[in-house]
Amino acid sequence: MLWLTCPNCGSRPVEEFGFGGELPTVPDRITDPHQRDVDYVWMFDNLEGLSTERWFHQAGCRRWHTVQRNTIDDTVAT
Amino acid sequence: MNEFVETLLEMQWHEPKSSYDVVIIGGGGHGLATAYYLATRHGITNVAVIEANYIGSGNSGRNTTIIRANYGIPESVRFYQHSLELYAGLEDETGCWIMHATKGLLWMAHTETGMRAERARALINTACGAETHVVGPQEIKQICPQIDLTGNGRYPVLGASYHVGAATARHDRVVWAYAQGAMQRGVTVLQHTKVTGLLRDGERVVGVQTDRGPISAGIVMSAVGGNVTKIAEHAEVRLPVRTHALQAFVTNAYGLDFPGIISDSELSCYVSQTPRGQMLIGAEFEPQPSYSMQSTFNSLASCAKKITNCLPFLRDLRVLRQWTGICDVSADFSPIMGFTGVDGFVISTGWGTWGFKGIPAGGEQMAELIATGKTPDLIAPFALDRFANDHSMADLGSAGTR
């Protein structure tokens, strides 16, 4: 992945951005509230495929935006 | 593995049986070392190691072959120092030549903050048994004359920590040594066999489903690299692991002897010389998770730009090969070893960018855990439940993790 599209600045090289992590999800099968908290804080879906994540335009407009990225080939979907 | 290599080794391949005492998923260093130590130390030989590709085709064949113990927290230093000592005796133990060479590692600092980190590293390492000294610029020049102490004017070298026991070994020979030793004692290694699921009996894991049929097992261990999250998901085990791509490259042969291993937190890269004379250079892993094994020019260019500041002679060399591995990086950058909370399923993961150096100790300790049913003291701090218990082991002890 070389370029990301920032809603404010347009297409910019990925070096300008910081990866902010995927949106955390907790599976429904975990019911214990403490275990749900542990899962929310520590565990990752680590999806192979489309992942919804937050990126920060560090060396640009310094705004956060949401990106859909395909982790199989490391390309941006939207 | 190619036919030529097979002629050199005494390997006996078997057809899968329907049941084993222990099934290990992943035929890399950790999986094969566990099988080897189960057979040699505990006499458990009814073991199968299942590998989706050929043995050592994953990260065991894609690392930069550095063996060191200079980590940042006592638990890690002790574990890796034990591993370093096992590596030193591995040729005698297995009778296989793994091209082990003790070289010493210089971890350079370019700022006062960096020096403070190196002083702390030297103190904690020496206290935990891994000999490390702080050295000044003149000593660095004596150890490695090729270093430009001005750092091209941009990265002046103020000092370094010198980890005396650091070594390198040929990575695939390590894999073959363990595979051969395990097979000679009756362990089955199944190559080109994909695990597609886990067999469950209620909560318990009782075997693996493969593309060559089901195999039942008394205990299943996952020694899977980058794809570990999917394997654990079959047992409904959630992991604090992300998969990141890590790239490395080698140059053509450098005519002179390059002493030691050079590492650098600020430039986040590490350099050593292979027995063939090639310069082997690795960098940090990509910041975003990815399963892609596509090497990128960006990574090559940025790493080359950084490292040539301190080692200007590298500018005259040419890049021969570049490759990528996908590594399982845990949330606190320390490996995860031990029980998973699901009966019959144990795990060794989170080896991220530091798995090769941990192969002997990781294998030995996991073998003991499987054989005795109890977690050995050395790896007790690395259990998966440390996250739920608020005992995470944050350790940015690798040049690739800042």
Model description:
Chain A is mainly beta and 78 residues long. Chain A has one domain: Folate-binding superfamily (Folate-binding fold), CATH 3.30.2270. In chain A, 13% of the residues lie in helices and 37% in strands. Chain A has a 4-stranded antiparallel sheet, with no helix packed on it. A two-stranded antiparallel ribbon of chain A has the order 1-2. The longest helix of chain A is centred in the middle third of the chain and has 10 residues, at 33-42. Chain B is an alpha+beta fold and 402 residues long. Chain B folds into 2 domains: 3-63 and 171-240 and 332-386, FAD/NAD(P)-binding domain; 101-167 and 242-330, D-Amino Acid Oxidase, subunit A, domain 2 (D-Amino Acid Oxidase, Chain A, domain 2). Chain B contains 10 helices and 19 strands. In chain B, the strands form 3 sheets. In chain B, strands 1, 2, 9, 10, 11, 12, 18 and 19 form an 8-stranded mixed sheet that branches. In chain B, strands 6-7-5-14-15-16-13-17 form an 8-stranded mixed sheet, sandwiched between helices. Chain B has a 3-stranded antiparallel sheet with strand order 3-8-4. In chain B, helix 2 packs parallel to helix 7 (171-184), helix 2 packs across helix 10 (359-372) and helix 3 packs across helix 10 (359-372). The A-B interface holds A 1-2, 15, 18-19, 22, 27, 29-30, 34-35, 38-39, 41-46, 48, 51, 53, 69, 71-74 and B 227, 229-230, 236, 238-243, 245, 286-292, 294, 296, 298, 331, 387-388, 392. Chain A: InterPro entries: SoxD, SoxD_sf. Chain A: One of its GO terms (molecular function) is sarcosine oxidase activity.
